Amino acid sequence: MSKIHKERRIPFVVANWKINKLQSDVMDFLEKVNEKVPGEKVVETGIAAQDLFLADMVRATADSPIHIVAENVHWEDNGAYTGETSPKALKDVGAKYVLIGHFERRKFFNETDSTVNLKVTAALRNGLRPIIDVDEDMSTYAQFMDAQPSVAQVSAALAGVSVDQIRKVTIAYEPTWAIGSGEAASADQAQKAAYLIRQTLAKLYSPVIAEQVRILYGGSVTPNNAREIMSQEDIDGVLVGTAALDPDKFLQLVEIAKDPSVPNFDIDHV
Ligand code: PGA
What we know:
Blueprint: H1 3-8, E1 12-16, H2 23-33, E2 44-49, H3 51-60, E3 67-70, H4 87-93, E4 97-100, H5 103-108, H6 113-125, E5 129-134, H7 138-144, H8 151-157, H9 163-166, E6 170-173, H10 187-204, H11 207-210, E7 214-218, H12 226-230, E8 237-240, H13 247-258
Parallel strand pairs: 1-2, 1-8, 2-3, 3-4, 4-5, 5-6, 6-7, 7-8
The structure holds 2-phosphoglycolic acid (PGA).
């Protein structure tokens, strides 16, 4: 939509480690990046990790602007739900954000639009900020070879989310075919999708509110393609799996997010 609005949204770089790190790796990574990330008014940073590391990560980042992100959450605050994690407990250990509806959860763990919505409202009720993942319909992609985010997923995820609450929500557009494949969407495809998502938010809330919500792109982001993707008008940051397992690449991505318009000659060695 507009450049002026983009400048008012603080860029957001989120690492999604999935189940790829052990405790010792986690602490090594944090030691390397803790003091190097800028303040959250410049670029906000988050790291999503397995629940069992979150409390230690919160302690290890106490003096750093990095926010700790859970990768999933249950929709009930407590009760007989063996193996799940309560949103109340996540808040209690100091997690600030939670990923909800990641493609891998939809694909391997039967996450549906309605469970995503239950989790989004549970997170907000407990003071956690949801990062809602939406992907896209492969048949639409095959047909049009173009980014078509599931607008239906956005609307379903936000049912019952108030105007006040939507400001605490981040949406991440992650085309299914780009996740972990090494083949990111083009900057243009990603922008088109983010624009459609913002238009959906404008219809659900208002154009003014839609301009306040951050929209991320995820799927094979690296320091080499991030600059162009993050320069797009409706893209406010990135959700990064593979590349963000490496502390140097994570720091490079944060550096790019500070000002994606500044060219960089030799990004791999920054
Ligand atoms: P990727 O993962 O960067 O390895 O594609 C992104 C994600 O799953 O969020």
